[in-house]
Each structure stands twice: as C-alpha cells, then as structure tokens.
Design a protein that fits this description.
Layout lengths: L8 E3 L6 E3 L4 E2 L1 E5 L3 H4 L2 H13 L4 E5 L28 H16 L3 E5 L22 H15 L5 E5 L9 H14 L4 E4 L5 E2 L1 H4 L8 E4 L9 H9 L7 E3 L20 H13 L4 E4 L2 H4 L17 H4 L3 H14 L6 E3 L15 E5 L9 E6 L6 E3 L7 E7 L6 E8 L3 E3 L4 H4 L7 E7 L12
Parallel strand pairs: 4-5, 4-12, 5-6, 6-7, 7-8, 10-11
Antiparallel strand pairs: 1-2, 2-3, 9-10, 13-14, 14-15, 15-20, 16-19, 17-18, 17-20
Helix pairs in contact: 2-3, 4-5, 8-11
Pfam families: Apiosidase, Collagen_bind_2
Keywords: Hydrolase
Protein name: Glycoside hydrolase family 140 protein
C-alpha cells in the first residue's frame, strides 16, 4: 500500500469523540455505500468519491463481501473475492480493486469504514433476499482478518466495522476470531460493530476491549425513530465510549420497508442527524436507498423499492444538506461539547422533539455556546444561566441551506424566551431550524462558518 495520506484516527482523551493522532477533532460525516466494491467499476467509483468529497463526506461505509450475492456474483471487473468460496484463499485480482479504492478515497480526504463481511456470510441462517453463503468458521475468520489487517492497516484511512446488519448471538466466537486476526495485522486500527435495526453494538460488546466506539442502527421502521434516546443511553454507559447512529433512515426508502408507504425525505434525514448529534453522537452517517445497493435500473433487481439509479440518487437533497451539520459543529469548539436537555423547558414529543447541546463542563455555568434543534417552530424558553458571559449573541441557522441570520445581541437574562424572528423565517422554506446562542465575548463568527 502507498504511504498514508491521512492521519490515523483515535478516541479523544475524554472518551466521547474521535480525533486525529495530532489531537485535532474529527466530525464523522459518513455515507452508506455497502455495494461499492461489488457493483461499481473504477471510473464509476471515482465519480462517486468525487461527488461525496464535494459534499464534505469524510467517511464511506462499504462491505468487502457484499450482501447481494457478493460471494457468487462477480464484481464489475469479473472477479469473485475468494477461490472456491474459501476465506483463506483470497482472489488477488478482487482485492486489487479494494487497494485502488483505499488509495483513491485517501487522496480525497475520505476514510473507509470497511466491513470485512456482511453478517449473512458468518451466520448459518436463511437470508430473506439472497442466497445465503455461510463460509466463515472460527479458524478461517482469524486468517481472513489477519489478511485484511496486514494489507490495509498501513493505509491509515481504515476503520474496521464488524457485524454487517446482524446481532452476534450464537456466532460470538467467529466474530472474536475475526477481530483477533484484524488486531494481529492492524494493532492500531479502530473497530466497531454494526447491528441490525433498532439496536446498538453496546448491548453486545460495550465492555469488549476491542470495541473502540459504539454504532447504533436506528433503522427504517418509522418516521419518528427516537434515535436521541438510543444515543443518550449509549452516552450514559460506563466505561465511556463514543457513539454514533451509523444507519438511520435512508432517503428514498419506503417507511417500514413497505412500498405502499411514502419514502423518507431530506427532512426526515435532517431530523435524524440533528437529533443524534445534539444528543451526543460524535458524527452521523447518511444513506440513500438507491446508493447503498448501487442500483442500476434494468441491470440490478431493485431492493426495497429503489426507484432511482445510483447516479441520480447522488443528487438527492439530503446528501447535500448534511455538510451543513458538519460545518455547524466545526464552527464551534467540539471536543468539549455535551448534550444538555435541562436547557429546554419543554422538549416536545416524537417528531416535535427538541434537542439541545452546548459546550462546557457538566454541572458548571461555563458554556460559551448553546444550540437547540427545532423540527418545527414553536415556543421555547432556554436556560442561559449556564453561559459564562454576561452578554449573548443569538443566531438562526438553516439546516437546509447552511445560511445563518443574526437575531440580536443582549444581556444574559438567565432564562431566555426565544426571540421570534418571523420576518426572517418567513418564506425561507425550511420547517426545521437551529437556534444558536453564543457568549458574545467568545467572538465566534456566524454558525457554520470558520473564522
């Protein structure tokens, strides 16, 4: 592999976030491209990575052994991953494409969250959609893990994601063997585990020394997923570990996997993202129903109602909007951030839920900024007694466009009824907003903009 172009990632000193080896904060903005290695050729992969880098995605989640018949249907270069379905006999030509993608992603500032395999290939259970190929044992899982760790660990831009949409029950030894192999080949690599819908890796592996951060799949079952509750539970666990929602609702996927239902929209995508991050996630992962499967109308069978080609889906509005969340969080001190619902007098219910975050120390009035996400506009009182300064500056931030408006500057009242700015809000076209309160003395610029 080429010399690393990106710094390795590590868990922050406070155990809540990821940083680079130099200690710089890292906001995970991920995209879901499960079938990337299986269904795209090199030119198409370049187009995909260019688009995602242009939208400021810095992580791509992809599976080395794909779910959609990934062991028996060749990739776009005509290659299968193994000789004779044997994980101890990897096909060099297949993994040469993976080598290429690792280098191309790194050149664009993108980390790869690599799943060594989709979980269906570890389990000896019938798959609901595809031919189930159970090929892993405790013995060959370790060999395969070591192969991957030695080959890709030196690249520096790899995060290992075990699981693949499955709970580990009855197959814990196989997963642990794969982990052991990865650790032998890549001792410094970060690891997590991807479970199925409505679950978190913490339920199964939180105390495992190899699990560096937790991954939630809030899933696709309903409009209101209450993912903030899942994040809050992980955030409160001991020992402290970072957490994020690695699979929320997918834009373009019918609600509850039922094609008679309308699909999730960019508004649903934004709600899941801001709820999750403001509740304590160190980042967020986006997904689109046509992109995870790299759908090609007329060539691939649409799964779960996929209507667009993967190229058309790259232009879906939600994928371009989440860069504004990253910009917002990076425009204020990030590693001292914490969730704080005590700032809000009425947090609302379900899709009306408000979520607050700030910086500072728990139990101390030393915050220099507060942010409150509103899925809809309604009355709100914010506790500003936690602010360090006597003078406050307030802003509106539009999650849809990344624009911000100065709402005014005032003395710190200790408890602020949100100043309604209907003249500014009217006609902006976004039902959801972020209200930002800064300590004026901190000198922060407009939310979402770097100094």
């Amino acid at each position: 592999m080429a010399a690393p172009a990106l710094p390795r990632l590590q868990v922050s000193d406070n155990g809540r976030y990821l940083t680079t080896a130099a200690g710089d904060s890292f906001f995970w903005l991920g995209d879901t491209a499960w079938e990337l290695f299986h269904r795209l050729d090199r030119a198409e992969i370049a187009d995909y990575l260019d688009d995602r880098a242009g939208k400021r995605f810095n992580v791509v989640q992809a599976v080395l052994l794909a779910e959609a018949d990934g062991l028996t249907v060749a990739n776009r270069e005509g290659e299968l991953p193994f000789h004779d379905l044997d994980p101890t006999r990897p096909n060099e030509a297949y993994f040469a494409l993976v080598d290429h993608v690792v280098r191309e992603a790194s050149a664009r500032g993108i980390y790869l969250a690599l799943l060594p395999t989709w979980g269906a290939h570890v389990e000896d259970r019938k798959h609901p959609l595809f031919d189930n190929m159970h090929v892993f044992t405790v013995e060959n899982a370790r060999v395969y893990g070591r192969f991957l760790g030695e080959r890709y660990g030196p690249a520096g831009n790899i995060i290992w994601v075990l699981g693949g949409d499955r709970v580990p029950t009855d197959y814990e030894e196989t997963w642990e063997a794969m982990v052991a192999g990865l650790n032998e080949g890549d001792p410094a690599g970060l690891m997590t585990y991807h479970v199925n819908g409505g679950r978190t890796s913490a339920t199964y592996w939180h105390d495992a020394a190899w699990l560096d951060f937790n991954m939630i799949q809030s899933g696709h079952a309903r409009y209101n997923q209450r993912n903030w509750e899942m994040v809050a539970r992980d955030h409160a666990r001991s020992p402290i570990k970072p957490t994020l929602d690695g699979e929320p609702n997918y834009e373009g996927l019918p609600v509850a996997f039922t094609e008679a239902n309308p699909p999730f929209t960019d508004y649903d995508v934004r709600k899941a993202a801001y709820w999750s991050v403001f509740a304590g996630s160190f980042g967020h992962t986006y997904g689109h129903n046509s992109i995870w499967q790299m759908h090609r109308p007329g060539e691939t069978k649409p799964i779960l109602g996929a209507a667009l080609s993967w190229r058309e889906a790259m232009a879906a509005p939600g994928s371009g909007q989440l860069q504004h969340l990253r910009a917002l969080m990076e425009s204020r001190p990030f590693l001292t951030r914490l969730p704080d619902q005590s700032l809000i007098d009425d947090v609302g219910i379900d899709s009306d839920h408000l979520q607050a975050t700030r910086d500072g120390t728990p139990g101390k009035n030393d915050a220099t900024w507060i942010m409150v996400y509103h899925p809809i506009m309604r009355n709100l009182t914010v506790n500003t007694a936690v602010m360090a300064g006597d003078r406050l500056r307030c802003w509106w931030f539009d999650p849809r466009t990344g624009e911000s408006w100065l709402a005014g500057e005032m003395d710190n009242p200790g408890s602020m009824k949100r100043p309604w700015e209907w003249r500014i809000q009217a006609g902006q076209g976004s039902p959801d907003w972020v209200f930002v309160i800064d300590d004026a003395a901190a000198g922060y610029g407009p939310p979402g903009q770097h100094p």
